[in-house]
Amino acid sequence: MNRQIIIVLLVIFTLFLASCSSTKYTKESLDKLANCLADKNVKEYGAFWCPNCAKQQKMFGSSYDIIKKRGVYVECDPRGEDPQSQLCLTKNVQKYPDWEFPDSSRLIGVQNLEYLAVKSNCDKPISK
């Protein structure tokens, strides 16, 4: 009886862990999305100390280097690297991350990468 309970609990725990894991995308498709966001002039306003910005960055993995190098990411804190604080004030950025699209629409907070792709008219990232 005790062994059966332990087995059931292990199965439930394993299923729980599996459901918590984030979707993994191919590096190539994340690079393609990052480049497309840059090509479409999408902006992500944020701050180096922002935990939600860090979550968003983690979702892109190493492809976030493209986001930074190609000017998608805009640092709003004057203490950050290459800050553009005046632009953030002009754009009335109040929460991070703040995503701005070419049609002037905005999304606040951590965004699903597939939704960012659709909103930007880019290809969705491909799962591994």
Task: Provide keyphrases for this structure.
single chain; 4-stranded mixed β-sheet; 6 helices; Glutaredoxin; 128 residues; alpha+beta
**Order of strands side by side in the largest beta sheet?**
2-1-3-4
Radius of gyration, Cα only, in angstroms? 18 Å
Provide the succession of SSEs: HHEHHEHEEH
**Number of DSSP E strands:** 4
The CATH superfamily is known as Glutaredoxin
N- to C-terminal separation? Answer: 40 Å
CATH topology: Glutaredoxin
Q: Outline the low-pLDDT stretches.
A: 13-21
> From the helix content, strand content and strand pairing, which structural class follows?
alpha+beta
- Provide the number of structural domains: 1
Q: The biggest beta sheet, please?
A: 4 strands, mixed
Strand content: 5-15%
CATH class: Alpha Beta
